[in-house]
Amino acid sequence: MRREKFIEAYVEALSNDTAGLFVGAGVSISAGYPSWKTLVQELAEEIGLDVDQETDLPGVVQYFLNRAGKKRTSLAKLITKEIGTEKPIPDILHTLARLPLKHVWTTNYDELLERAWREQRLLMEVNTDKQHLVLNNPAAHAQLYKMHGTVKNPADVVIAKGDYEGYRRERGEFLNLLHSHLVSRRMLFLGFSFTDPNLAQLFTLIREAFGDTPPEHYAVVKRPQRRDFAGRGSKERFEYAERRHKLWVEDLENYGIHCVEVDGWSELDELMKAVEHRLASSSVMVSGSYPEELPSGGTEGRKRTEAVARGIGEMLARDRYRIVSGFGLVVGSAILSGALEELYRDTTPNLERHLFLRPFPQMIPEGQERQEFYRRYREDLVRQAGSCIFIGGVKIEEGRTVAAAGVISEYEMLKTLGRTPIPIGATGGAAQEIWAAVNADYAAFFGRMPRRAFDVLNDVDATSKQIVDAVGEILKWIKEKGI
């Protein structure tokens, strides 16, 4: 499957809240945790087996447990020793945690996923047994289904042949829920080998039910690499691996699983960052404010700012962008008014999908330091969008108008996060200062984009319609060029 087609399809699923994620052992291995073969090696040696000659690793663990009289003490100690230590979180998991994923599945025992979501200040509820499945926390940002158990309870993980054979009896509720997700969601498989016997059975059931029109899912898989084959007969073994890989990818298509092939796992993070960027580009933040009354009157300045903001809101809604706003004075209400005028042309408008409004609270939560609270609040807003339109950003201080420091700080956050600023300098205040800063380093922000539309943003003689049209041109350029 072409990468561009995958990005487009998965972004659509994320936007429609129909995306799912399944994380396999490959992601944990990239963080420094042992592969299944490495984990089992010590057990195999203890019972006189060579793990390199074994293909049934759950069987090896079962043989070990048989020798131990079914006692899992040594096995639990091994899992705690090898997986209980925290490893650095791979960048790919930070990227995934920033995506609006509500349902995440894994066969891994470690806690990389929980930690990645926590570092993004997101609550991920962890489900490790069937009792958890009926006690979902509605306040959680995401649900994590650890269908093979967790390192926190190493004696109860699914690892031996008997565990797999008894899975439907002991944890069948996980399979039922996963089956429903495989039917209703577009699942992305990362670092997963598709050798799990329980999942193989689920895919067979889905194939039987849907025939030639199975639900669509995606997997990122690594092609065999010549450098991984050394020694005598390496060329023949590599060519054989290539042939088998192609046949395997073709077979996955029969189950509705479209494969995106990479040459190295480093490409995985680039791919998911492209998904994040494309998703963010469909949302536009509007930052700015304007005093309701200026010391010297300033009625015309306010009217102009309102007209521009209202036109921007209407244009963003018409072009189906999601509008992100902290609802600054004058600007926020004008943006909302313009957007609603357009959205209510539809007899059944989906306001939640097109508006992400988070007015700044005037009362700070108890126990929070004001500046740190506002910093976090602004950063959470800025992260929601791929670009930000700055309008005004004017406030009154000691009887005179000055640039709003909060709007300037949002611009600084935006730069750090790699988002694109669209400052309407003609509305004055912080927007004018930001326009000057962007103008001084224009190519870094917009590359080869023609300057005409950007220059209109700072033209005090331009009409509100001309400014709105110029913003529309810039947004179109950003989307087409993937800035």
UniProtKB/TrEMBL annotation:
Name this protein carries in UniProt: SIR2 family protein
Span of domain NAD(+) hydrolase ThsA Sir2/TIR-associating SLOG: 268-476
Domain of life per record: Bacteria
InterPro entries noted in UniProt: DHS-like_NAD/FAD-binding_dom, ThsA_STALD
Species for this entry: Allomesorhizobium camelthorni
